[in-house]
Amino acid sequence: MNSVWPIAHDGGAATGPAARLSPATLPGLPASVQRPGYDRDATRIGIVHFGPGAFHRAHQAVYVDDLLAHDPGWAVCAVSLRSPDVRDALQPQDGLYTLALLGERPSLRVIGSIREVLCAPQQRRAVMSRLVDPDVRLVTLTITEKGYCLSADGIDAAHPDVSRDLVQPEQPITAIGWLVAGLRERRERGLAPYTVLSCDNLADNGGRLRRAVLDYARRVDRGLAGWIEDHVGFPRSMVDSITPATDDALRAQVASALGVEDAWPVQREAYAQWVVEDDFRAGRPPFERVGVVISSEVEGWDRAKLRLLNAPHSALAYLGLLTGMGTVAEAMREPVLAGFIERIMREDILPTLALPVGFDPDAYIGAVLERFRNPAIAHLLSQIAWDGSQKLPVRVLGTMADALAQGGRIDRLALVVAGWLHFVVRQARAGAELSDPMSAQLLRIGAAATGDAAHDVAGFLALESVFGALATDARFVAAAVEAYAALGDGGPAAVARALAAAVQA
After folding, report:
1. Of 110, 147, 287, 500, which has fewest CB within 10 angstroms of its CB?
2. pTM for the full model?
3. Segments of the chain assigned to CATH 3.40.50.720
4. Nearest Cα to 270, choosing from 374, 354, 364, 171?
5. Fold for domain 26-283?
6. pLDDT digits (tens, 9 = 90+) for 89-143
7. The pairing of beta strand 107-111 with beta strand 114-119
């Protein structure tokens, strides 16, 4: 974290604060530190959350913290599926932790929405008690795609944890197993089911989770599966906020600013977005009162994010790395590159989108550009560049296909694709690693590059899983070859000239 907190604290030993963040120390925090604006003792747990990592605590839990000032019935029970680390850090603090908002004027806020922290392997009865609590009407998840154990159309029954749960469904270890076990118990007790809301960054997250739960439930109890299908909502959602990992530097800065220690603070950019489909069967929190967008067009919001946020991120990564930049903020300080990014967003990407109701494109693009320029977020281009073979099809190539179908131009977007190709070639020639599921194939193609644009591009276009039908589209091929040639040797000077020409075109 690069920010210096403009917070002064009087007192504390020279060797550092010994006291711990807790309800008892909360009143003594500096006045500049925001704290819960409600009576925590008057709240009731209405949400069980699986996967209380940094993103949940920096994102959804903050929205709930705002919500509790309006409705005290939606406090969170946070459940870790494996490690006790979050519980052990937050339990002595009664669930309190600090959120550091990063920007030109950084700030600190204590979040109080988590009222209980459990570790599922060690506290099975307590977790199940919460899942069958009538006050609990919503179960949320941030467990990463890997945690869902998904197959193409349901649950991966061959996964060792899933196969174990299917043999012992009353003693689950997977998130899907816990969801179904809790729903089964509620059905047996004559209780209404809870709504299940995935908050992971997955396309069609609610639909995929629903299919996985139903697939698993059918293997356990077909009657239960039918009940779930008829009565349980699985809303889709879209989440967005950059959340760097907590490190010792953050802990030290937060402790210095607060005058007490916080075992596990979290940090994020000031910007946050949460879009949720209105598919709640047991009542829902009044999320719209705290800035959550309730929409029937989550897919449209998700596509807008992919194309107007993630695609420019990839463009910055490949073109920025070729010009010697290290971070997003550094790349955005280069006027020609920044101008190129804004132009493709407004003129090349935006026209391909069918925008959902309530989406303000000018405000969204402006917010994205401001986020990119945030100097407090050290977002490495090298990390964004990972997994290009998986990211570019959904971030850039789909946009280009739509533009071609509409008779639009693709020459500037072709520079982004060509930037990726030159990046792969550079890695291959340097004998460097390439973080990509297709790294072996890509590096072979990169090593065979001769500098002849038609030859080099043809080698990459042979990757059908990446380029699909575009590989045989004469307009796309011509644009890709021209863009690759425009980037010359892929060095800083050549890339800068190509970008300058693209901005002026």
Report:
1. 500
2. 0.91
3. 26-283
4. 374
5. Rossmann fold (3.40.50)
6. 999 999 999 999 998 889 999 999 999 999 999 999 999 999 999 999 999 999 9
7. unpaired
